[in-house]
Design brief:
By secondary structure, this protein is of the alpha/beta class. The protein has seven helices and six strands. Helix content is 34%, strand content 15%. It is globular and about 40 Å long.
C-alpha cells in the first residue's frame, strides 16, 4: 500500500522537523507551499531546505507551483478575485474543488504518487495543524476521494500521527459549525 505523510513546519527548528520525518521513515520531502519561504523561520526557505535536507539523508522536491494553496488564477477563488490583503484566509477563499479539476493539478498528483511508490514521501506546508491547511483540504481530500487505496497520514508537531479521513472539518461550511478531530 502506498502511504503519503503530510507535515507542517510551524515554528519548529530544522532539527525537529527532520526528527519527525525520520521517526516516520520519510526519505523525500515534497514542498507544497506556493511561496516556499518563511519570514519567521528562514531555515525553511526553499534554498536552505534544498541544501540542508540532503545532508540529513532526506531528499527535497518543490511542487508548490501545481500543488500549492494560493493559485495565481483568479477563477480559482470563490470571489473570482485574487485577494490583495495581507491577512487573507486563503483556506476559505480558494475554491479547491475547481483546482482539483485542472489537468496540471491531476498531473502533479500523479507525479506525487509515482514518487511515493519509490520513496517514503511527506508533503510539507507551513501550517502545523492539517485541519487548517490546504495540504489536507486540497491534496489529502483529493487523494482520499480518487485514490482510496493510498493511505494519507498527518504528522503533528508533537509526533502524533493519524489518518487524514479522521478530519471532518470542511472549508465549504461556515466556520462556526465546523468540527475537527484535533
Amino acid at each position: 500500500m502506498t502511504r503519503i505523510y503530510t507535515i507542517g513546519h510551524s515554528k519548529h527548528t530544522l532539527e525537529k522537523l527532520v526528527q519527525l520525518l525520520k521517526d516516520n521513515g520519510v526519505t523525500m520531502l515534497v514542498d507544497v507551499r506556493t511561496a516556499p519561504y518563511s519570514r519567521f523561520c528562514p531555515w525553511f526557505n526553499k534554498d536552505d531546505l534544498e541544501f540542508e535536507l540532503p545532508r540529513r539523508q532526506v531528499q527535497y522536491q518543490f511542487a508548490g507551483k501545481h500543488l500549492g494553496g494560493r493559485p495565481s488564477d483568479a477563477s480559482l477563488y470563490k470571489s473570482h478575485k485574487i485577494p490583495e490583503d495581507e491577512g487573507v484566509d486563503y483556506l476559505h477563499e480558494v475554491d479547491y474543488s475547481e483546482i482539483m479539476k485542472r489537468p496540471w493539478f491531476e498531473q502533479a498528483i500523479e507525479r506525487l504518487l509515482e514518487t511515493a511508490e519509490q520513496e517514503v514521501v511527506a508533503i510539507l506546508c507551513s501550517e502545523e495543524n492539517p485541519a487548517d491547511c490546504h495540504r489536507h483540504h486540497l491534496i489529502a481530500r483529493y487523494l482520499l476521494e480518487y485514490y482510496p487505496e493510498v493511505e494519507i497520514v498527518h504528522i503533528r508537531g508533537d509526533g502524533v500521527t493519524f489518518g487524514a479521513a479522521s478530519i471532518h472539518k470542511s472549508v465549504d461550511k461556515p466556520a462556526a459549525t465546523q468540527t475537527t478531530m484535533f
